[in-house]
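About this split. The held-out portion is used to measure sequence recovery: a designer receives only the structure tokens and must propose an amino acid at every position. Recovery is the fraction of positions where the proposal matches the reference. Here is one held-out target exactly as it appears in the evaluation file.
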């Protein structure tokens, strides 16, 4: 209970400043995060303590618009995702249905990777460069829908416990749900048929 209160206050105190532009201490490297072209050090935007520089004004604008509209920012940015992943793994490791998968896993690394993955998947500013989900899970023998559902259940419960808006939880869970085939190493489902074919 104490732990939950601590995490909640951590989220509340940090989330307010997490996604705010301004007071930047670090500077990104010289490549534009939008175009991949060399960045102009005069065209910058500060986000979550990092100053990003861009190839041109249009890229800067796209980056700021993407951030403003992102689920990542609506959820509270880096501080909120970090706190959610910490709480999520407390739940996962306490659950006998799935915790044995993590027996030999370095959980500090795992938490860092999950934070990176979820941040990028939810529209955070830093691209995910870890293993793709298919190869990350292919060696986990016997992984099936029941395990996936348990993991998704813990993520949903975590976001609910952190008092995230139910509508945002729904959006986040849809993104996580879209990884099911990759995590379970199944062929991806074909895209839905085009509705324009209906007379
Ligand atoms: C719900 C969707 C899931 C997502 C988004 C997800 C995400 C990830 C990510 C990002 C990694 C790290 C990849 C890397 O090494 O770079 C990872 C590894 C891992 N995941 Fe998942 N995962 C999901 C479901 C599951 C499920 C259902 C289980 C088992 C119950 C599981 C167990 C593991 C384990 C044990 C590893 C470590 C593998 C290793 O280091 O050898 N994951 N996952």
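Reference sequence for scoring:
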């Amino acid at each position: 209970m104490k732990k939950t209160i601590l995490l909640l206050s951590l989220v509340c105190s940090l989330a307010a400043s997490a996604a705010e532009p301004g007071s930047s201490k670090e500077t990104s490297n010289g490549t534009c995060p939008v175009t991949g072209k060399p960045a102009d050090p005069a065209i910058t935007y500060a986000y979550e303590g990092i100053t990003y520089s861009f190839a041109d004004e249009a890229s800067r604008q796209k980056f700021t618009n993407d951030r403003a509209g992102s689920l990542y920012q609506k959820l509270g940015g880096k501080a909120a995702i970090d706190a959610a992943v910490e709480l999520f793994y407390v739940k996962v490791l306490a659950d006998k249905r799935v915790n044995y998968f993590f027996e030999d896993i370095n959980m500090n690394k795992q938490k860092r990777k999950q934070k990176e993955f979820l941040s990028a998947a939810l529209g955070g500013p830093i691209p995910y460069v870890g293993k793709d989900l298919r190869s990350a899970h292919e060696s986990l023998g016997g992984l099936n829908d029941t395990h996936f559902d348990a993991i998704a259940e813990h993520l949903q419960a975590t976001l609910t416990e952190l008092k995230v808006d139910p509508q945002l939880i729904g959006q986040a869970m849809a993104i996580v749900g879209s990884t099911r085939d990759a995590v379970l190493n199944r062929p991806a489902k074909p895209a839905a048929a085009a509705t324009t074919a209906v007379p």
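Annotator remark: Residues 117 and 128 are 6 Å apart (CA to CA).
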